[in-house]
Amino acid sequence: MFKFKKIIKISQTKKNDSILILSAVLLLILSGLLVFLFSPGQYLSLSSAPKIIGGASLTIDFGNGEKRAFEGGIIKNETLIDVLNQAARAGDFSYKLNEESDLASIGGLVGGGKKSWHWYLNEKKINRQPGEITVKPNDRILIKYESR
After folding, report:
1. % helix, strand, coil for the chain, step of 5
2. Alpha helix (H) ranges present in the chain?
3. Among 48, 70, 93, 121, which is least packed, fewest CB within 10 Å?
4. pLDDT of 106-115, one tens digit each?
5. Fold of 50-147
6. How many Cβ atoms are within 10 Å of 105's Cβ, its own excluded?
7. pTM for this one?
8. C-alpha span between 39 and 67 (Å, rounded)
9. What is d(CA 14, CA 71) in angstroms, rounded to the nearest whole number?
10. Per-domain residue ranges for the chain?
């Protein structure tokens, strides 16, 4: 009977040792994963957030006396369309582009007939596609619904 108890005790000890080793391995894996995810320069790190390089303003002139104005930070290589996207989210309005990537409508006001949407950058009319033009700090953007 003495030997039987000793065998049970050894068996339980091996089982406890196995659980301890398995727990240590899992803890090591979890620690390594956390170090990888939160180390400097990784995707989940705060250091990878885009850096604001300055501010710009956007005014939308609906041509009937109504205007909406927006100001905000810009990041490197941000385009006029990117700025319009930010304003649309902040101002809770929608817009549509046509096949040529020109502005077709803002907030349901559709260009057509004698009037259409025109872009201005620092008071100069833009003749290029707005997605090709990079915004710089202190730029003043105007989108105006006016005669062609």
Report:
1. 35, 30, 30
2. 2-38, 80-91
3. 48
4. 988 888 788 9
5. Ferric Hydroxamate Uptake Protein; Chain A, domain 1 (2.170.130)
6. 16
7. 0.67
8. 46
9. 68
10. 2-46, 50-147
